[in-house]
Specification:
mainly beta; four-stranded antiparallel sheet; about 5% helix; 2 helices; about 325 residues
Amino acid sequence: HPSPPPSEEVWSFLRAVPPIADDVLMWRTPRESWKIGKPCHGKKVYAIAISNSTHHVYTCGHGYIKVWDESALYTWNKVPQAQLNFQEHQNCALTCKQFLDEQSLITGGLSRTLTLWDLAPKPRIRAQLASTGPISSNAQICLACFKGFVEIWDLQNQILIKKHEVPEYGSRCVDITGNKFWTGGEDTSLYSWDLRSYQKLQQHKLHHEILSITHDTSEEWMLVGLRMSDVAILHTHRKEKFKAIIHKYIHHHNLKFVACGNYFVTTMDESIHCLAAPSLQRLFQVEESTEILCCDVSADNQYLVTGSKNSATVYQLLY
C-alpha cells in the first residue's frame, strides 16, 4: 500500500528548510531519502529531466511531456504547469536531455525523429531530426546509437555529420564526454572513440551485457550498468576499476552521477540504490512498488526523481 502523504505541517517544514550550501554538498553523501511527492503523469514515464536553476521537472512518455514546477514536487495531486504535445500523437519519448543553458531540451523515442524543444519564452518545437534511438547530447552535437553504427548530428545547423561504424553488438548505449564518446552493448565491451578522428581509443571487457553508461562531471570516471545488475566504475585514464555486485537479473537499469561526483544513483527494476564513488560503498536503498523506468537527480543534490507506471516519485535527499 502506498504511504499516505505527509501532513501540511510537514510540507511547511520541508519548504522552510534552507538550501544546503554547495560547499557542504561537495563533500557529503546522503544518508537516506524521504518520499515527498508523486506528480501524476497519466501514462508510463520513460524519461525525466530536472532543470538546474528552477527545479522544473519534465516527465516524458507517450504523446506528450508534462512540466512540473517545484511546488508540484511536494504534492500528490497538483496539475502540471504545462504540457508539450508531440506533433505525432503516437510518438513516445524514451530519452530526454536538457542542455546546460536550460533553454532547450532534446527527446528521442519510438518514431524516426529526434525532437528539439525551445523552452523559453514559451515551450515549442524548434526542429525535428530524422533519427532515433538512445542518445547522448551537449548543446552542440547529439549522438544516436543503432545496431552497428552511431549517428553524429550538428544541433546548431540540424544536419547529420557522420554515421560512424562501431561493433554490431557494441552500440546499445552511448555517452559523450568532451572530445570523445563511449559505446557499449551486448558484446560486453565498453569502447571509447575520438570525436575528431573517429579512431577507437580504448576497449574494456566487462563480461556481461552493458545496459547503460554515464560519466561524472569531471569526466574522469565512467559508470557502467550490466545485465547481471553489477555496476562497474572505471577511470578514463588510469587502470582503475571497481565493481558493485548485487546478483539479480534485471531488465531496466538507470544510472545517474550527481553533479558533485562523489556518489551516484542506480535503479534496478523496483529498487533504488545510492552508492559512493568510486568506492561503491552503499549509502541507502529504497524499494518502490512498481518497476522504475528512469531517474534523475537535481544539480544541487536536493531531489531524486524516478519515473514508473503512471507517475513520477520525488524524494528529498537527507544529509
